[in-house]
C-alpha cells in the first residue's frame, strides 16, 4: 500500500512538472515570436522615419521650408524650368531606399514631384502649383484658417513696374493680415502692410515688359484664397511666402505621396503620407 | 526498502534537473528584452544625429564627439556610413571600432545637398 501511494504521488508530481515544463516551453516560444515581431515593428519604424526624413530634407532644401510657431515659410521660383531637379532628386532617393531596404518598400513621390502640393495641418490649408511645380502659378486654398500672409517678390527683369493695387473693401468680421514687398522693380518698389478682406479680392498687378504678374488675395467663394501668377514664362520670379496660422503645433503633410513598407512574412505593413514638422 | 528510496530520490532528481534545463532557454530569452531596448536607443540616437544635421557633416570626429555625448556608459555603439552619389558608392567612414560579436544591428539613410548625395548607415550596438 505504501509503495502504491508513493508511486502514485511520484507519477502525479512528474506529470505536474512535465505540464509546467510544457507550459514554460510554449511561453518561451511565444516570447521569442513576440520579440521577433517587436523587432520587425521596430525596423519598419526606423526605415519609415529615415525615408520620411530624407524626403523632408530634399524638399525643404529645394523650397527652404521652415515651420515655426504656426508660421510656414517657403520659397518658390515661378516659371522655373530647372524645377525638375527636385523631381530627379526625389526619384533617385526613392530608388536608393528601395534598393537598400530589408523589406518590400514602395515609395510614391509622384504627388510631390508633379504639383508639390502640401497641406498645413491641423487646419487643412492647401498650398499647390495648379500647372505643376516650377510652373507659373501658386495657389493657397481652403484658407479659412489663414491668419495672415507675408509675401516677398523679387523680379529679375528691368522695366517691371507695379501698375495697379486695388484693395477689396474691408467688410469682413475678421480680416487677414497681409504684408507684400517687391524687389527689383524699376522705379519705386511696392510695399503694403495691413488688414485685407477675406472675401473681396485685393489685387496687385505688376507690369512686366511683355506680360503681367498678379497677386490676388481674398475670394468670395474661397475666403482667404491667395493666388500668385506670373504670365511671363520667360522670366524667373522669386517668391518667398509665409502662411500664418494660429496653431502653434502646425505641421506640413504631403497628401498625395506615401511610403508603403511591408514585411510579408510577418503580415506587417505601414502606409502613411510623408509628414514634415 | 533503501534501494526503493534511493531510486525514488534519483527519479525526482532527474525530473527536477530536466525542469531546470527546460527553464534555461526562458531565462535566456528574457535577456533579449534589454538588448532590444539598446537597439531602440541606438536607432533614436541615429535619428537625432540625422535631424540635427550631425550625420550630414560626414565628419568622423564631429559624429564621434556627438555620439559619445549621447551614449550611456554601459552601451557600446559603432557605425559605418557609406556615401553614394545618385548611382554608386563614393566613400565610407567608420565611427568607433566596428563591433563584431553579440550585437543588435539597424540601418538608417539620409540625403544631403538637395539629393546629390545619399548615405547608408549600418549601426551596431551591444552592452559593454
Description:
Chain A is of the alpha+beta class and 277 residues long. Chain A is 31% helix and 38% strand. In chain A, a hairpin with a 4-residue loop joins strand 15 (251-263) and strand 16. The longest helix of chain A has 62 residues, at 2-63. Chain A is elongated, with a radius of gyration of 29 Å. Chain B has three helices and four strands. A four-stranded antiparallel β-sheet of chain B has the order 2-1-4-3, covered by helices on one side. The mean pLDDT of chain B is 84.
Can you describe this structure in just a few lines?
Chain A is α+β, with helices and mostly antiparallel strands. Chain A has helices spanning 2-63, 84-100, 110-115; strands at residues 66-68, 71-78, 104-108, 118-121, 125-128, 137-141, 148-155, 161-166, 176-183, 191-196, 202-207, 212-217, 226-230, 237-244, 251-263, 268-276.
What labels describe this entry?
heterodimer, A: 277 residues, alpha+beta, ten-stranded antiparallel sheet, six-stranded mixed sheet, 16 strands, 31% helix, elongated, B: 128 residues, four-stranded antiparallel sheet, 3 helices, rod-shaped
DSSP, total strands of chain B = 4
Beta-strand share of residues of chain B: 25-35%
- Which descriptor suits the 3D outline of chain B? rod-shaped
Fraction in helix of chain B: 40-55%
- Count of separate DSSP helical elements of chain B: 3
Poorly predicted segments of chain A: none
Helix content of chain A: 25-40%
Q: How many helices of chain A in DSSP terms?
A: 3
User: Which class do the helix and strand fractions of chain A yield?
Assistant: alpha+beta
pLDDT average of chain A, as an integer?
84
Amino acid at each position: 500500500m505504501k509503495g502504491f501511494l508513493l508511486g502514485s504521488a511520484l507519477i502525479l508530481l512528474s506529470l505536474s512538472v512535465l505540464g509546467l515544463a510544457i507550459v514554460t516551453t510554449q511561453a518561451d516560444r511565444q516570447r521569442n515570436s513576440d520579440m521577433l515581431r517587436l523587432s520587425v515593428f521596430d525596423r519598419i519604424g526606423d526605415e519609415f522615419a529615415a525615408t520620411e526624413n530624407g524626403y523632408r530634407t530634399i524638399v525643404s532644401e529645394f523650397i527652404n521650408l521652415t515651420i515655426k510657431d504656426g508660421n510656414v515659410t517657403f520659397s518658390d521660383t515661378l516659371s522655373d524650368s530647372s524645377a525638375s531637379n527636385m523631381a530627379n532628386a526625389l526619384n533617385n532617393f526613392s530608388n536608393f531606399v528601395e534598393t537598400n531596404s530589408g523589406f518590400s518598400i514602395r515609395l510614391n513621390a509622384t504627388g510631390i514631384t508633379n504639383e508639390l502640393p502640401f497641406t498645413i495641418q491641423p487646419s487643412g490649408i492647401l498650398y499647390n502649383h495648379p500647372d505643376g511645380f516650377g510652373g507659373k502659378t501658386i495657389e493657397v486654398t481652403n484658407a479659412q484658417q489663414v491668419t495672415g500672409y507675408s509675401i516677398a517678390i523679387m523680379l529679375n527683369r528691368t522695366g517691371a513696374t507695379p501698375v495697379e493695387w486695388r484693395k477689396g473693401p474691408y467688410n469682413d468680421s475678421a480680416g487677414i493680415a497681409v504684408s507684400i514687398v517687391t524687389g527689383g522693380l524699376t522705379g519705386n518698389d511696392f510695399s503694403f502692410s495691413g488688414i485685407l478682406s477675406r472675401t473681396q479680392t485685393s489685387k496687385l498687378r505688376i507690369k512686366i515688359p511683355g506680360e503681367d504678374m498678379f497677386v490676388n488675395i481674398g475670394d468670395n467663394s474661397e475666403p482667404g484664397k491667395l493666388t500668385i501668377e506670373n504670365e511671363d514664362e520667360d522670366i524667373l520670379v522669386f517668391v518667398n511666402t509665409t502662411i500664418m496660422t494660429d496653431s502653434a503645433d502646425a505641421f506640413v503633410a504631403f497628401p498625395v505621396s506615401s511610403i508603403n513598407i511591408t514585411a510579408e512574412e510577418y503580415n506587417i505593413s505601414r502606409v502613411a503620407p510623408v509628414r514634415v514638422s | 526498502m533503501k534501494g526503493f528510496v534511493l531510486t525514488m530520490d534519483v527519479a525526482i532528481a532527474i525530473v527536477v534537473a530536466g525542469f531546470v534545463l527546460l527553464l534555461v532557454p526562458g531565462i535566456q530569452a528574457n535577456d533579449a528584452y534589454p538588448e532590444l531596448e539598446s537597439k531602440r536607443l541606438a536607432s533614436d540616437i541615429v535619428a537625432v544625429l540625422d535631424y540635427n544635421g550631425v550625420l550630414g557633416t560626414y565628419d568622423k570626429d564631429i559624429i564621434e564627439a556627438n555620439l559619445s555625448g549621447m551614449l550611456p556608459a554601459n552601451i557600446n555603439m559603432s557605425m559605418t556610413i557609406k556615401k553614394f552619389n545618385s548611382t554608386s558608392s563614393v566613400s565610407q567612414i567608420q565611427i568607433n571600432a566596428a563591433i563584431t560579436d553579440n550585437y543588435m544591428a539597424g540601418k538608417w539613410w539620409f540625403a544631403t545637398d538637395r539629393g546629390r548625395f545619399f548615405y547608408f548607415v549600418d549601426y551596431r550596438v551591444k552592452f559593454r
